Amino acid sequence: MCRWHRLVRGRRVDNEQTRLARAVHELFMMKLNAKKWRVLLIEDDPALGVVTCDVLRCLGLNVDWAISANNAFASLAHQHDFDAVLLDLGLGVTDGVSLINVLRAAGHRLPPLLVLSAQPPEALHRAATITGAVAILPKPCSAGDLNRALTRVLSPPGKA
Q1: In contact, 64 and 75? CB cutoff 8 Å
Q2: Which tens digit of pLDDT belongs to each residue from 104-156?
Q3: Which of 76, 109, 117, 142 has its CA 20 to 30 A from that of 131?
Q4: Between the CA of residue 158 and those of 26, 48, 152, what are the distances in Å?
């Protein structure tokens, strides 16, 4: 059970808290029913990283969070068992496309990439093409959008 569900379970709550509780309940209802998938979130915004990690955990996923391109490189440049990568394109000094290009040029195996960014649609599509991403999620996106994209990528064929 994620911390948001524990906070609202069994308490009287106001309208704002009720909406949050319903959103959390929706997360639990859409939880991925498969093995405990492991994803790497590459996100340099601390607030978005925390929230996205919480949502992913509520969806039943194991999450590692790389807060910079350097951290992401360290996570992906050696033997790893990530089932998918959620990639923000704007990572401060280094952008997500450059990070993926460097990793691929060095011969590193990468799991399926999902581009998650607030950039304009044309930039998202261009980045997805360059990186070979299997999905695009414009920010902001809902937990449902995230769940549907990850379900398509992580579920065996015919089960999504």
Answers
A1: yes
A2: 999 998 999 999 888 899 998 999 999 999 999 998 888 888 988 998 888 76
A3: 142
A4: 23, 32, 10
Given 3.40.50.2300, 3.60.21.10, 3.90.1150.150, 3.40.640.10, which CATH number is that of 31-154? 3.40.50.2300
* Tokens linked to 62: 């194991």
Half-sphere exposure of 43 (CA within 13 A, CB side): 23
Residue type, 151: T
Enter the pTM of the model.
0.77
Q: How far apart are the first and last CA of the chain?
A: 24
